[in-house]
Amino acid sequence: MNQIHPMAIVDPEAKLGDGNIIGPFCVINKNVVIGDNNNFFNAVTVHEGARIGNSNEFFPGASLSTKPQDLKFKGEETLCVIGDNNSIRENVTISRGTASKGQTVVGSGNLLMENMHVAHDCVIGNGCIIGNSTKLAGEVVIHDNAIISGGVLIHQFNNIGGYVMVQGGSRTSQDIPPYVIAGKEPIRYAGINLIGLRRRGFSNETIEIIHDAYRIIYAQGILKDGIAEARAKYPDSEEVEYICSFFENSKRGVIR
Predict the structure, then answer these.
(1) Exactly one of 35, 49, 127, 138 is catalytic; which is it?
(2) How far is CA 221 from CA 76, 227, 233, in A?
(3) How high is the pLDDT of residue 138?
């Protein structure tokens, strides 16, 4: 049974699962599907196109599936898909997709801190932590288990690798590869995310392979040569393959 506060507004066309708590001054619009056991604290707005999973918590002022801040958007029917077990803090805004990709996606087990923005057609993986007032422009992709500190500005179409740590207040218009610390001004590679990898259960041997792969790649003046050398040295490493593929598939260039 859902608990809906008498001062909340829920459109009769919205589809709700079971065990949801919808607090005062929340607004749930039509064309919304919500799973089970979600907690919407007061003054949360869920716009058209939201598809929300289970056991999420949404704090006051959060605005989900908002109209994209993109002049190319012409009112097409698009989605904002949010998985399970996320904590979406105060005043977070998540836009729905545009005709470009059709949906904005937030995976499961993420913490999106106060006042951050997820623009249209972004994809956030699982297990990410994104700090206060960080802003993602359109069609940014954040891989699993990334940690992005507060006040970070990420250019549209950027790709942020998994298991990274991005320094607070940074700005990036290039991709950030997996397993690294990115920081300083201008933003650049600042070593391996050693503490983060250990916390995630990576062995010392695997961490050393990752570290060595970056030494090889960044030592070469031509990245293509470094990638080939790293692959040849560690042909059976999934982590090295992830790194090499990330560089090869980058469209905006990778920080160095």
Answers:
(1) 138
(2) 46, 11, 18
(3) 98
